[in-house]
Amino acid sequence: NVALFRSRDSGHHWERILPSPETPSIVDGDEAVYLYSAAGVWPGGAVTAVAADPDVPGRLWAGVSPHGSWAQKWGASKGIIGTLKILRSSDGGSTWQQDKGTLRGDRIEKIFVDGISPLEMEKRVLYAATGEGVFRSRDGGKTWELSSAEVPAESIHDLAAGFDLASKRTALYVTVRHRDGAPSAIWRSRDQAESWQLIAGPRELPEGIPPRPVGTWRYEAIAACASKPDVIYVSTVYTAADPVGEFYAAYRSTDGGESWQCTLRGDPRLKSQN
Q1: pLDDT of residue 76
Q2: Which domain holds residue 202?
Q3: What is the DSSP letter of 76?
Q4: Per the CB 3.0–4.6 Å rule, which of 87, 234, 238, 260 could disulfide with 247?
Q5: Rounded distance, CA 213 to CA 67, Å?
Q6: Could you tell me if 178 and 136 lie in one domain?
Q7: Is 219 contained in some domain?
Q8: Tens digits of per-residue pLDDT, 82-102?
């Protein structure tokens, strides 16, 4: 079952509360730690993303994506299937509100709260990533707009965000998949998703790795330091048309993606899975 989990002791113990269509109360919460699991049915679909406001205790957002089992049990006439919803809570999850705003895509991957935006709910800025793109809300999640027109549609893989409170800087990063012949890539925004720039991802194998035939790079998971938006990490897969197989590694950048250093690499002796 899909559920939200709460911990009151920094993750040492967890309490599970099963949601149901008849029970709006999902999590009794105050200043708590939350975990989500997407492996079943939940009223409205599967919970695939959760975000907590770093500055306002008890303020949460949950991303709800369509789920096949929900459709089979309750039917698409409920108006949930095929839409992506953001639920919000102001009391640690005891009660939730669902606004009319929806997002496009098949799954909400990530939600981020812009730490430099105004604290008032009606002015809080949020970002959400789906397969269709990056969406932005300027009113605490009530309404959403697509804010990644430059990024190839239907190819978003992951989203990361960092916020420098001292300089009031925000940086967003997305990785995009190979699609329709286009290579995998990394995109960056430094103006709260108003515009995006394509940045060069890692393109060199780590020192000590034997030369390999020309291949393709794939950029998958990406993460940014929450308080240092120029520090980012990305996981990569290099694939060459030879019997050596794929090469897996992780890279770090301290200048917003202008240069990269390998921080984790697979064992080159494991030719098929390293």
Answers
A1: 32
A2: 162-274
A3: G
A4: 238
A5: 42
A6: no
A7: yes
A8: 578 888 888 887 777 887 777
- How is residue 12 written in tokens? 């040492």
Distance CA 80, CA 73 (A): 12
Instruction: Name the domain count of the chain.
Output: 2
In a shared domain, residues 143 and 167? no
Distance, in Å, from the CA atom of 255 to the CA atom of 230, rounded to the nearest integer, reads 5
Is 80 inside a domain boundary?
yes
Burial class (CB in 10 A: 0-12, 13-18, 19+), 245: middle
219/202 Cα distance (integer angstroms): 9
Residue that terminates a domain, selected from 147, 182, 209: 147
Is 131 in the same domain as 15? yes
Q: Give the residue with greater pLDDT, 144 vs 48.
A: 144
Same domain, 27 and 115: yes
Distance set, CA 27 to CA 4, 56, 199, 248 (Å): 7, 17, 40, 38
Tokens of 232: 């980012």
Q: Are residues 91 and 182 in the same domain?
A: no
Q: Are residues 119 and 95 in the same domain?
A: yes
Each residue of 141-158: b (16+ CB within 10 Å) or e?
A: bbebebbbeebbeebbbb
Please state whether the predicted TM-score (pTM) of the whole model is above 0.90.
no
Q: pLDDT tens, 164-219?
A: 988 899 999 999 887 666 778 999 999 999 999 999 888 887 776 766 667 788 89
Going from the C-alpha of 160 to that of each of 137, 157, 173, the distances in angstroms are 16, 11, 5
